[in-house]
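Write out this protein's structure.
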Amino acid sequence: MNALKKSALLGLTISAVALSGCLGGDSSNDVDTRTDQQRRIDTGYFVVDEEQLAFTALSPDVPAYANTSRWTGVLDGAGYRVEVPENWNGQLVMWAHGFRGEGPDLTVDSPPMRKYLLDNGYAWAASTYSTNYYDVRAGVEDTNALALAFNDIATQNGRSLAAPTKYYIAGASMGGHVAGAAIEAETQQTANNFVPYAGANPMCGVMGDTELFDYFTAYSLSLFEVAGVGADSFPVEDSEARLEAAREALWVDYENNKNANGLTPLGGQFYAILQNLSGGPRPIYPLSFGSFQDLLQGFAGSDGTITGILNESVADTTNITYRFQTVRGQPLTPAEQAFNNSIVQAQPTPGANALRDDGLRWIPKVNGELYADIPVVTAHTLGDLFVPIRMQQVYRERMESNGFGDNLVQRAVRAPGHCDFSLAEWTQTFDAMIQWEQNGTKPAGDDLLDPAAMADPDFGCEYTIDGVPQTTMRAFMPACSIATP
């Protein structure tokens, strides 16, 4: 009932906005209101790399995979892979890949838990999407379009299949944003292609949607402010010169030691600010700090349009509180209050990412308002500073505020990298969602809104599973004092 009421209310909102004429932008014939991304699409910039669509081998000598169907192709400008085991259980899993950068070549991923899916009878499909850049709108629409075309693709390849009895969606990083947005009531109401997913498994995902870009903006604004070269406005002018000055002020030798032990005393203040911006005190953060600095500083010159996905800035730091002596929930100290009063704020352009009358917003929202009563299980690494675990905290807050807190289980993994999961961690998290949806067994999880729990040296041990790490840095993680899986 909760979701139905909100869906109806959203429908009224969309109708009102459509009548106001605000959705489509300027209709003047002599004004080009296209975003940079629209121009790239219109000029045919993106091209499917059809050779890359080919499947990699998966134990071809094992009889169980001998009659597995594997199909590749292009659907409405997006490449795809589809794999269906001989003993298909009638259910389809959609896999959403992460950010691909800004190049023209469209490529696809297979899900990390591919073997698990085939061993348990699941078919799966994955799209390249029809664009690159941070185009979650294309990710949602193209993933859903592929799911809806599943039976036609099978028929075209000589295998007649019944329609899937259930659809699930999983994704990583930007693909986590795709998966999270795909199950929203707003998506049900506004998408050109909608799929009624029975459950979702966003991994290391951008679950705070545009708040990720608020975080990137707050990183550079606070970096400059601590270093004494604070910006006067946003977007920031002379960002390269300010970066050079910040590296000189906050690190002893930035080029040779970006880690926490290479900071100056002033740099220690920034270390604490970033810790709180990214999710609060927690294990693994000290190990990760240095390895993400170049990447995060690469956003210092951004203008808030998400590299042209939008025409106007969506960056907003007006609700961000900078802390270097306290943690979330505590009153600010006088020094912190003075810092927050002095730092420049990025303010979004009203309507920059507004509802549209031609499908999803340019950057789809993850409002925490599910379209139905379905289970969602997420996992996130504690050391990730590219898509920080703060995104999961935002998602929990939104789900709780909208009455869907019981539909969400979140888990922390002790790893220093972005999406730095072992195969066992990928598989276990997905399986937890499946068992919950199919058997009613709600899995256990971590409380990411409890600062004391997160600060415990053993936080994250429960769901960190030994296995082949994605990065060599994982070998340097501090050991748990409790038994791990």
